[in-house]
Design goal:
320 residues; 2 domains; Rossmann fold
């Protein structure tokens, strides 16, 4: 990414920290120690709906399929106005479970050939797969499954796949191709986050300093996840960018800058370095540009390293 574009995404007061974070992230990538943790923001960039839009789309499809005047009024006038997407999905699932999961499958089971035509998907898949062999995601869709040799909802497979040098994507909230694994509703969340193995995996994933974690397209707003990761770290003193091993890409509008300063301090107390970038110029596609910049920086470092080795080799040959 050229310098002018970077200036429109990373403001001057955050540029120094971004450069430091970029060095650490790319170093981990080169050493195959980078894990990218993705959320709905990544899938939305590829054309899939947000959680709220997903819930509203299923509500609309239900109204069109089932002509119950009283129930449809409740759905269209009351349920759609609710702000908690998880609660909306939970209610729809209770009303008609079969319809609910059929709709989920139809929306989230993406055609591999069609998704390849999506320009943003092409950019994201290229950057992400170049940066890491290891993805952990809360997304149930299959948009990146074809890029990685192992796609699973089983946490036990994750570190063993890393040890076996396999490219893996772990779906923390289940895969759309396995209905029994899905975590969409409030009850499903409670059940999943009470599983001992699941809780243990999340704690291990985020506490292991050997790996660098880059969080992209995920707001870290789920308290279920936060309480598992940081119960013992809340009282930690602030750390520098170099000391942290967890990085959160977080977008904001220019006018929100004063709030984001304090937001960054809160995350830092939890051992997370927030990388703020503005979306005034490129909208949510700014995330794609950041990931491209990280990918390009890795490519440049590798190229520079190769050139350096070639020059050293040529010098040695000449000396002999």
């Amino acid at each position: 990414m050229n310098e002018e574009k970077l200036k429109k995404i990373i403001t001057s007061e955050y540029k120094s920290d971004y450069i430091k974070a970029r060095e650490k992230i790319v170093e981990a990538s080169i050493q195959n120690r980078l894990i990218i943790f993705t959320g709905a923001g990544i899938s939305c960039l590829c054309g899939l709906p947000t959680w709220n839009d997903l819930a509203n789309k299923i509500i609309d499809n239900y109204i069109n399929n089932y002509k119950n005047e009283e129930q449809n009024y409740i759905f269209s006038k009351i349920l759609k106005d609710q702000t908690d997407a998880k609660n909306k999905l939970s209610i729809i699932q209770q009303v008609n479970e079969k319809f609910f999961y059929e709709e989920m499958y139809n929306i989230l089971n993406v055609d591999e050939e069609k998704i390849k035509l999506n320009e943003e998907y092409s950019k994201l898949s290229k950057s992400i797969s170049y940066l890491t062999d290891f993805i952990v995601t809360t997304n149930a869709d299959n948009i990146f499954d074809s890029v990685y040799s192992v796609s699973t909802e089983n946490p036990r497979s994750f570190f063993s796949s890393i040890d076996n040098k396999q490219k893996i994507i772990l779906h923390l909230h289940g895969r759309i191709l396995n209905k029994e694994s899905l975590v969409f509703t409030t009850i499903e969340y409670i059940k999943k986050y009470s599983e001992k193995e699941y809780r243990s995996f999340i704690k291990t994933l985020f506490s292991d300093n050997h790996y660098t974690i880059l969080i992209a397209g995920y707001s870290l707003s789920e308290l279920e996840l936060l309480t598992l990761i940081y119960p013992e770290k809340i009282d930690n003193n602030n750390k520098t960018v170099e000391e942290n091993h967890i990085f959160l890409l977080n977008n904001y509008f220019e006018y929100e800058k004063p709030i984001f300063k304090f937001q960054g301090e809160i995350y830092n107390q939890m051992g997370i370095t927030m990388i703020p970038y503005i979306k005034d110029f490129y909208g949510f596609k700014s995330l794609t540009l950041i990931l491209q910049d990280l990918s390009e920086h890795k490519e440049n470092l590798i190229s520079e390293s190769k050139e350096k080795r070639i020059k050293e080799y040529a010098k040695a040959i000449k000396g002999n």
